[in-house]
Amino acid sequence: MPGEKEVIIIANGSFNDLDFYRRQLKDDAYIICADGGARYALKLGIKPHLVIGDLDSIDSEVYEALNESHTQFVKYPAEKDDSDLELALLKALSLKPDQIIIWGALGKRTDHLFANLMLLILPLKSGIKTKLVDENHEIYVVDKELELSGNIGDYLSLFPLSQEVKGITTQGLKYKLQNETLFLGPTRGLSNEFTHNTARVSFVQGLLLVIHVKRTN
Fold first, then answer.
1. Strand 192-193's sheet: what is its strand order?
2. Where do the domains of the chain lie, and which CATH numbers do they carry?
């Protein structure tokens, strides 16, 4: 549905505080479930617009409940090149929203986690702001400036995904960077801290993984 302002993708990962996700939901958001994410949609009281994937993680009760609510299903073969989350993200990008938010992509399997982080590179060509979100994290991949809201004391880590990220300047963070370069490998960008409720990161060239960790104590 072109013109949707926000698409939320529900993946089949970890959900702890369901009320956290309920509070984030906007009434006009378009909801896509990546396969088994449909189970969490039901737990959240959400009727998704679309479920996509090989559907191997959906039992008959979940399927029937969603089918009754007129959810659309798009099934792919189990042996496919794209993960269920990638299929969901590609569909979301085709809708041309202003923003895509992905829930449940930070599970226990390290290989899946890494793959899901790398998927954040796909929206860059479309210029659609996309982030992975859970109760304690907001994660982005960016090729230009980014402004984030948080609380004083929250952590912000910057990790190059290209050999160099040049001309980095930060605002609202404890350890300032002023037109500096971060290199792939070293951990200089790890665990900076918010000193204001807004932080800003800008740079001239490169690809940057940005991880905002909410401070819980």
1. 72-75, 50-53, 30-34, 6-10, 99-103, 129-133, 137-142, 208-213, 155-160, 192-193
2. 6-135 (3.40.50.10240), 146-213 (2.60.120.320)
